[in-house]
Each structure stands twice: as C-alpha cells, then as structure tokens.
Amino acid sequence: MHNINERIRAKEVRVVGEGIETGVYPIAKALEIAKEAGLDLVEISPTAEPPVCKVVDYKKFLYDQKKKQKELKAKAAKTVIKEIRFGPQTDDHDFTFKKNHAIKFLQEGCKVKAFVFFKGRSIVFKEQGEILLLRFVSELEEYGKPEQMPVLEGKKMIMVIAPKKK
After folding, report:
1. Are residues 106 and 145 in the same domain?
2. Tens-digit pLDDT profile for residues 67-76
3. What is the model's pTM?
4. Where are the beta strands (DSSP E) in 5-135?
5. In this structure, what is the dihedral angle of CA atoms 54, 59, 64, 66, given to the nearest 10 degrees?
C-alpha cells in the first residue's frame, strides 16, 4: 500500500504531478499544494532520497495501477501443454504419427507432455517405456528440448518437452 497525505513520514519530499511545479518541499508545504489542487499526496517512491510523492486523485491512481497490471498480465505469455500418450508396446507407425503431431505442437510454441501409460501388468515394461520416451525426445531434438527426463508417477512415465526459441 502507498502512504497518502498525513501518513507520509518524511520531513521533505520531491513533489511531482500534472500542473504542479516539480521540486523538493517540506511535507507541510507539499500537503498544502495537494489540498489546494483538491487532490491527494501519494508516496510513489518511498526509497528515493528524498521520497517522491505525486499529487493525484488516489482512487484514480489505484484504478490506473490495477488497469496497468491487468494489461501486463494479459500480455504475459500463456503456455499451452499438449499431451501425447503412448503404450509401452507402441509400434513404429503410431510412433511416427504421434511424433509428427508433437512437431506441429512444438512449432506452434506449445509444450508437449509425452507419457507412457502402463495398464495392469504392463508396468513390468518400465525400461521399454523409458527407451520409447528417450527415442521420442531424440527425434524431436531440432524442434524442442526436454524440460525433464522420464519420471515414473504411479502408472504413467512422464516427460515434458519445451519448444526451442526461434
């Protein structure tokens, strides 16, 4: 939270704002300037020497800050994770088909979560599942890089592949 008006503890502050002469003032003079303008004195940089205060309508100031944060959040990159499922005995044709899908996903900028699902007693083929995932990642080497090596979680062996930066 920001310190406003009487809550500001500094003896002198640098005052900025629209239509206000920028300068360093004693806190009493700065508060007087803000009251004359019918606005609030808001401490925007308390660590500066002297602290920087802005003469502004506090409610509008908070609204503008929330709006800016919302815009930044909207511009932040959203990562999409696409899943590709294998069985421990996936044959070459299915492997190639799924590999081509993974290449398309990585080119679109999505992460790929490849996993081998072990049903029933097929858990005895753990090594086969790991070999399959390592082969999968080696064939996708020019499109993406592994974020984590194969990990067995319950009945799934999971591996995440991130797209390479262009």
Report:
1. yes
2. 999 988 887 7
3. 0.53
4. 12-16, 23-26, 40-45, 52-56, 81-86, 111-117
5. 120
